[in-house]
Structure formats: C-alpha cells, structure tokens
Specification:
The complex is a heterodimer of chains A (166) and B (232). With 166 residues, chain A is mostly helical. Chain A is 57% helix and 0% strand. Chain A has helices at residues 3-25, 31-49, 51-61, 66-106. Chain A is elongated. By secondary structure, chain B is α/β, with parallel strands linked by helices. Chain B has a single domain, classed as Spore Coat Polysaccharide Biosynthesis Protein SpsA, Chain A (Alpha-Beta Complex). Chain B has 8 helices and 7 strands, in the order E-H-E-H-E-H-E-H-E-H-E-H-H-E-H. Chain B has helices at residues 16-26, 43-50, 62-77, 96-106, 125-141, 157-165, 173-181, 205-220; strands at 3-9, 31-37, 54-57, 81-84, 110-114, 153-156, 186-190. Chain B has a 7-stranded mixed beta sheet, with helices on both faces. In chain B, strand 1, helix 1 and strand 2 form a beta-alpha-beta unit. Chain A binds chain B through residues 94, 96-97, 100-101, 103-105, 107-108, 111, 114, 116-120, 123-124, 126, and chain B through 2, 31, 35, 53-59, 61, 65, 68-69, 72-73, 75-78, 161, 165, 167, 231-232.
C-alpha cells in the first residue's frame, strides 16, 4: 500500500471524525446513527496507521494488491450502509404517510353519526413507536400528551428511543 | 349496502365541483368524501365553501396515500364498501350501482370497473401497456383482468380495512395481482369512462414509462415475496 493512499485514508478518517463531532455537537445526528461513522473512521485510522495488518489480511483472502482489498471492503461497507438507509427511508416515508392521514382525519369536523356505524376504535399506528423517530424538531407533531418535554435545555439530548428497531 | 365514494383530488379546482355535484345528483344514496391531496390550487377552499365532506391532507402524499386516507375514513365509519372515483371526472358515478350489484351477486372482494368487457381495446401505446399488464396478471395469477389500470374499483369492507392500514397497498394493478394470488376474489363489471374534464393528466410519457416499469417488476418479481398478514 502506497504512502499516498495511507495519507489519503488518514485524511478521510480525520475529516469524517471532525464533521461527525461537529454534527453531534450541534445536535444534527442521533447518537446511534453516529456510531457507524465513528466505527468507520476508526477502521480507516487503523488501516492507514498499520497497513501491515491489512496486507496480511489481503493475502489471506487472496487479493494481491492491498489497495484493491481496501477499496473492496470499503465498497461493501458502503453498500450495506446504503441499503440500510434505503430501508429506513422507506419506513420513514410510510410513517409520514400515516401521520399526514391521521392529522387530516382528526381535523375533519364531526358529522352526524351514521346509523349503526360500528366504527372500529382507535387508529392503529404503523409498526413501532412513532415518536421515537422525530428527534430533530422539538415541536414534534405526535407526542403523547403526558410526555414531558426535555426540560428547557431543548433538543440537544433527545430521549433515546425505546423500541428495538433499526 | 352503504357505499362510500372516495374522491382523490390533486389540483382539481376546475373539476371537483362538477364531480361531487354529479355524484350527489345521480347517486344520492352513495356517501362520499373528497381527499384533497395537498393541492396548490383552490381545491380545498372550494370544498369548504360548498360544504363537501373533506379530508384535507397537509402534504401531497400521492394517489396511493390519498386513497388510503379515504379508505381509513371508510373503515373507521363502518361503510360496507368503498369505491374510488377520480377527481377529474373521468369516472361515471352511474356505474357504482353496477359495481355494487356485481359485488353482492358474485361475493367479490374487489370489483373493477372495466372499459374493455364490452368494448375492444384500441391500439396505441397506452393500450399496449394495459395489454402487457393484463398478460402479466394472467401469467402470474391465472385471472383474466381486462382493465388492470382502471382506477375505479369497489372494495368490500374487509378489503377496505386491509388497504387502509397496511403499507404497499397502492390502488394499482400490482396490489390487485398480489391479492388475487393470495386468495381474494376480484371480478370486473362493465363501465364507460370519459376523458378528464379539465386540466392535464399527471401521467406524461416519462411517468407512464416509469409506472409501467414499476408495475411490471412489482407483479413479476416482488409480489411473490410478500407475506399477507392482516393488521386487524
């Protein structure tokens, strides 16, 4: 592995780390999403500082050029990350749908009850607790009436979601 | 049978009054609700002024989301069946009776208003698309659906409940194919449709192409992997 690639990886690692810390400080990233990027920057750090390990690993797998091996691994990691992001986006989208529908239905004026309308009870929500997702906007649309806002200090440290999801 | 007509409307200020007024005039026994899908024009204001039943979505969710909101309303208020009636005036509310008779007579879960039971399919690209979807549904489910892209469909109570609360239940041919394969009874009843009254269709050439691609991939590949579980 060339010294140039080492320096490049080191720079990438430091930049990732720098931007990440800044985002966390300004409360733009949830901690559990940040963990991935911390892990990635640590990985890059290790690769750039001790390329010997990576070379050995590359030979073990049968990749002659360590550089190729590094690229391959990084691409795999990013693919997995992209897939997860896509899944999350899908779920977010369907939740947004439900939310908009519930808001619109709730805003309808009451009509004279239809005869024998055996109305099913409350609205079921889409899977998972709705309020867990919304962390960036303090004025979350759906918040249980009795759930206390984080005291004055506002949205810097949102409560961690309870559900085991993601 | 108490039926709810769901009228999805996105920027239909020019059409919506005519559509609702016609429905109330020719089929007064049918309930209705307009779903304003985040229109940028006066659609919602017109509905309020005229005192129409209105679900006013705060965002533009697209047709599937709008129809779903209507089905949630139907489900919540306990209607026996719900029919989609487009806000552009191309669906004739006089057909609702035929659809509900077909549903009651044949015990169907979904009745599709088909333009092609009594008339032949024409030529042209759009009809080619329709043919292709019919063929794919035939091949994957064995059912003969002459008008898969017809937006006018009558859903039974059970179907409305299922559509209302699940994801991936867009009112589109792929959902129909999936439901047929998982045991739902889907039939067709003859209907005539009109060209949209005012304004432009959402489907331009590029969107139509994307739509066809979506539907084909969905019907041929994706629908095999779905697991049907009723939420309620």
């Amino acid at each position: 592995m060339s010294i140039f690639l080492q320096i490049l990886l080191l720079a990438a690692c430091l930049l990732t780390f720098f931007f990440l810390v800044r985002r966390i400080r300004t409360a733009h990233v949830q901690i559990r999403d940040a963990v991935f990027w911390i892990g990635l920057s640590v990985l890059l750090l290790v690769v750039s500082l001790v390329p010997r390990w990576v070379e050995r690993l590359a030979l073990l797998v049968g990749v002659v050029d360590t550089t190729n091996f590094v690229f391959l691994v990084v691409i795999f990691i990013l693919l997995v990350k992209l897939f997860n992001t896509s899944v999350q986006l899908s779920r977010l989208d369907s939740r947004l749908n439900h939310l908009a529908q519930q808001i619109a239905l709730a805003a309808m004026p009451e009509e004279p009850a239809r005869p024998e309308s055996a109305a099913p009870a409350a609205f079921p929500l889409p899977a998972g607790p709705l309020q867990s997702q919304d962390q960036t906007s303090p004025g979350s649309l759906v918040r249980p009436a009795d759930a206390p806002r984080p005291e004055g200090t506002a949205p810097a440290q949102p409560p961690q979601p309870a559900g085991g999801e993601g | 049978m108490e039926i709810l007509a769901i009228i999805p409307a996105h920027n239909e200020a020019q059409n919506i009054e005519a559509v609702v007024d016609e429905l109330v005039r020719v089929a007064p026994e049918v309930g209705y609700v307009v779903v304003n899908d985040g229109s940028a024009d006066d659609t919602a204001a017109i509905c309020r002024r005229r005192g129409y039943h209105l679900i006013d979505l705060p965002l533009n969710l697209g047709l599937a989301g709008a129809v779903q909101a209507g089905l949630q309303y139907a489900s919540r208020r306990g209607y026996d069946a719900a029919v989609q009636l487009d806000g552009d005036g191309q669906h004739d509310p006089r057909c609702i009776g035929v659809l509900s008779q077909a549903m009651a007579g044949q015990g169907a879960d979904i009745v599709i208003a088909s333009r092609f039971l009594e008339a032949k399919k024409g030529r042209g690209l759009r009809m080619a698309g329709s043919r292709l979807l019919s063929l794919l549904i035939r091949l994957t489910t064995g059912a003969k659906i002459t008008d898969p892209t017809s937006g006018m469909r009558l859903f039974s109570k059970a179907m409305a409940d299922e559509f209302a609360w699940n994801i991936n239940y867009g009112p589109e041919p792929d959902t129909v194919a999936y439901l047929i394969r998982s045991g739902a009874k889907v039939v067709e009843a003859p209907a005539a449709m009109r060209p949209r009254q005012h304004g432009e269709s959402y489907l331009n050439a590029l969107r139509s192409l994307a739509y066809m691609l979506n539907m084909c991939v969905s019907i041929v590949f994706i629908q095999w992997f779905r697991k049907r579980e009723a939420r309620r």
